[in-house]
Each structure stands twice: as structure tokens, then as C-alpha cells.
Amino acid sequence: MAIPQEILDEIQDKTNIVDLISSYIPLKRSGRNFKALCPFHSEKTPSFFVSPQRQIFHCFGCGIGGGPIQFLMQIEKVNFLEAVEILAKKLGITLPRRTSPQDSLKTQAYSLNKEICSYFHNNLFKPQFKKILNYLKQRGLKEETIKKYKIGYAPKGFKNLIEYVRAKGGSLSLLDKLGVISPTPDGSYIDLFRDRIIFPIFDIKNRVIGFGGRRVEEREDLPKYINTPESILYHKGETLFGINFAKQAILKKDYCIIVEGYLDQIIPYQEGIENIVASLGTALTPQQIRMIGRYTKNIVVIFDSDSAGKISSLRAIDLAIEQNLNVKLVKLPPGFDPDSFTREKGSQDFLKLIEEAEDFFFYKLELLSEKFNLENIQDKSKLLLEMLSTLSKFNNALLKYEYLKKLAERLKVKEEFLLIELRKIEKQDRKGPSFKNNTFLKKELNFAEEYLLKSILHKPELLAIVKGVIQSREFSHKTLRRIFEECFNFCENSEDFSLKKLLTRVDGELASQISRISLEEFNFDQETFKESLLKVKENSQKTKIEILKEKIKEAEEKRDYLQLKTLIPEYEKLVREQKLR
Ligand SMILES: [Zn+2]
Predict the structure, then answer these.
(1) End-to-end CA distance of the chain
(2) 197: β partners
């Protein structure tokens, strides 16, 4: 972290969250709190609360919450440091400078990229390249779209861009770092894009980070598209084409359409479907999914008919499910891509396809059923494995169970059997026992763990007591475990613990949990506190025993007597301890 903790605490202390939030949306008093229509999801009755006492906000509709920093991160779509900078500026607090030589190089790189982008774009409007502009118009691009996307043209020849930049006093080495020129064997350079239509790639802040070039002549010996390689600004797979234009619409519509190519994004956008981005590759990356996750939990992936069947692209979507995104899929009719479909059938038909989008799980099942022969036992088990690995990604236990039932029905397999297989996969994923049979026990445990957190948030002096009994890894809930880890750090650094300070040290997911838990009704009760401590401890002991049992069984199967010699006494000790309680 570049900003000292004292300054963070000062900023958090001096900011009034009610003033901050009401400068964005109107707040209405409601008892001790304020409420409003949530700015992060669309709703008709307010579920967005702001607590002046605790200096936090939380939306009980979409689950987003935290302190002033988290609010700014969400509403301004900025990162942690940028949010802190905004608050510091409002308060007149100066932050330590954090520029490095790398930063100033990047600043130069952005401005050179902008220059290059204008060069390509202006070419299109020169008389000698009029036929290129006309070609684009025939292709269905309106002039305003061409201007908005800064689409351009790189002429034939090897040194056009190089000469242009040289004449302006720009440096070849920076051009090289931007990936727009290629070195030749004789030690000089040539332009990367020659006789190509240029699509600039913008980042979320509208800065040009790279370019894609489409061939003009339909020559089979030339690749249809080439892109800027990895450069100091462009990192393939970390960006989404069109996100700078689409972000507002994604927020508003609360879903994001994902397509593959430049024109697949541009043409539907031009026709009014604005919540759309392109992955610039068939497989979505985790970074891209996280980027979308900042705006919406709902995605609709559109496949061309030829890429739809690729298992690799389906696997990528498992990633989205793992991050709690709802995924639907649309397969276009043969011969169409989103670009040609919108041009030929119109945006209404395109939207209709989206309305009929199929749930990812069933889509995958159907696809695999076509691919594998269900009469063949080995094929069937391959299919099962593939489907169960998707199921194991769901964090929502109820959803997981519903899908599992449907899968069992469809494949005529017993649910119990699928459950056993699913557990095996989950164990391999080392995701912990998240699919416990006994939901009642799990609820009780969850209550106890949350009760402990509520207790320390309301009575910070209890933190040391909790830490004395339980280690953070003994909490069964993944998020709570991470929250307690942060809390316990205060003790280790012998720092005073407070909700405000805690919120400057956690990510958005944790902040949302913390804000929810601290806004919920709470009356401290000594007995419940003690019981909760015991319950959490007891469960962790039980889990340890279960794990040991499992290990002993494995060692027995392998006849690993050496291993058994250490495992069994450990096991007996734990069981004795448990009985004493
Ligand atoms: Zn909300």
C-alpha cells in the first residue's frame, strides 16, 4: 500500500458518509438511518441504507456496502487508491507523491498512442482514401460511429507511421514499446499495420491502449485481423473492447452482452444495443470477468455458430459462475455473427435472441449430449464429470442442488450418486466442505460466526477474547475467515480496533459483508457470545478430526505405517479433548 495507514485513517475519520453519498443521490431519513433507491442496481423501493452512526452504507438488494472509500469505488468505478485520492482532495489532505519513472513513461505512451490514433483516423477523411471510407459505410458503419470509435486507416507502405511520428519529433523506441512497429533483420523498423482498417482499443478511462487492424484486400495469405502485441499499455485478456462506451448502459440494464470481435460490438452498439463488449478472443479470461463483475452480475455470451461448440470457451464460462455471475448463452443461427445478424435482421430480432438466451448449465448439457453417446458408459461418465465440474463452481448451494436434481433426472442417474461424485471434485478443488448435507448445522454455525463478528464490531474490547480462543482459519465461512484475519491483525500490531479502520483495509467483497453485518439489528448478550465462541471452536475441532480420519483411511489403504504412526496419536488427542468439553 502506497498510502500510510495514518493518512487513510485520517481521511476515513474526517469524511462524513452522509454528505458524501447525498452529493450523488438524494437520501431520506428513516429512523436512525438514511435510505435511498440504490444507485448500483435498479429498484422501485429503497433497500439502500446509510448509517451516520457507523459511517457505512449497505444495499440489502444487491449486497454492496462498505465505507466512504467503497462507495466512491463503486459509483466512480475507480480503484482503491483513486478513491482515496478523491476523498483526500475534498478534505484538502495532501497525499505522498506516488509517481515513478515507469509512470511518466506510461503518460508519454498514452499521449503518443492518442496521436497515432488521430493519425489513422484522419487518414480516412483524406480524398485519396475515400474508397476506404465508402467501404466502411457500405459495411453498415455510420459516419458518427466511425468518429465515435475513432476508426482509421493505415495506408499501404512500410514507413508511413514511422515517418509521421518522426516528423513530429516522436521516438522510435517508444513506438516500439507500443507495439505498432516491428523490427526487421537489418536493425530498422517497419509499420505493423499496412493497408488495414484500424480499430483503436480503449481502456475503461477512454485512453487508447492498442489497435486492431483488419485487412482491406480479401487475401487468404494475410491474416484477417492483427492486433497490437503485449505492450507497456496493452495486455491481451485484461481488457474488453467497447467497455468505455458500454459501462453506463451495463449498469443501467444490469446485464452485459459479450461478443467476440470488433464489429460484433460496434454494429449492435450503433443500433442501440449499448450494453455490449467484445472479448477479442473466444475464451473469456478471469480478468475480463472481474471487470464485468464490477458493473453487473448478469452476462449473456453470444457465440458464432462455429465457436459455440468449443469446450474451451465453455470452460471459460465456468470461471464466471465461480465468481457468482449468472451466465446465459445465445447461439446464433448458422452463418451469422452478431455483426451480420444485426445488419440483416435488425436490432429487435437481436434483442429477441437475447430474451430467449438459454441458461448456461442446460446449454452445456445439451451441447455435450450431442457430442457424447449417452448409451456408452465411458462417454456418459465423461459428460458427467464435465457437468459436475461446472456444478462445483456454484457458490449458491440451493442453485447447485436444483441443477444437480435436474442433471440426475436428465441422465437417469441417482441423485445420491451425483452428490458423491460432486463431493470428490470439490475436494480436489480444495474448496472446503461447502456443500454440507446438514444445512441446519451450517446455519447455526454461520449464526455463531456472524454473532462473534457483530460482537467485536459493537464492542471492540472483545476482539482480544475472540482471538485468544479461535484462530482465523478455524472459521468455516470463507469470507468471515478473511474478515477475522484482518481483525486479528490489529491485535498483532497492538493497534486500536475500529469499524472505520477495518474498512480501509479490506476489499469490496469483505466490505459489503462487514457493512451488512454491522447494519443488522443487534443486542449484545453475554451468554450468546460465549455459546458462539464454543460452537465455532467445537466445529473446528470436529472438522480437524474429520480431516484426520480421512488421512488415516488413505494411509491405511496405502499401508503407509510410518504416516499412521504420527496420525493416530494426533487423532486420539483431539478426540480426548473433545470429550473433555
Ligand atoms: Zn443495490
Answers:
(1) 43
(2) 153, 214
Mean pLDDT of 416-434: 72
Which pLDDT band holds residue 331 (cuts at 50, 70, 90)?
Answer: confident
Distance in Å, CA 255 to ligand 1 centroid: 14
CA distance 455 to 524: 7
Residue 238: all three cell numbers together: 485484461
Ligand 1 ion: nearby residues, β-carbon < 5 Å: 38, 40-41, 59, 61-62
Cα 108 to Cα 102, 103, 175: the distances in Å are 10, 9, 11
Q: How far is the CA of 53 from the centre of ligand 1 (A)?
A: 21
Return the DSSP state at 431. Answer: -
Q: How far does residue 45's CA lie from ligand 1's centre (Å)?
A: 11
User: Do the strands 298-303 and 256-259 form a parallel or antiparallel pair, or are they unpaired?
Assistant: parallel
Query: Other C-beta atoms within 10 Å of 424: how many?
Result: 13
ipTM given for this complex: 0.95
**How far does the centroid of ligand 1 lie from the alpha carbon of residue 454, in Å?**
22
Hey, what's the cell of 453?
463478528
What is the CA(56)–ligand 1 centre distance, in A?
Answer: 14
pLDDT tens per residue, range 431-456: 444 434 456 677 788 889 999 999 99
**Distance of alpha carbon 60 from alpha carbon 63, whole angstroms:** 5
Separation of 294 CA from ligand 1 center, angstroms?
A: 13
For the stretch 132-159, pLDDT in tens is 999 999 999 999 999 999 999 999 999 9
- The answer to whether residues 498 and 514 touch, using CB atoms and an 8 Å cutoff, is no
Instruction: Report pLDDT for 434.
Output: 40
Positive or negative CA dihedral for 15, 20, 22, 23?
positive
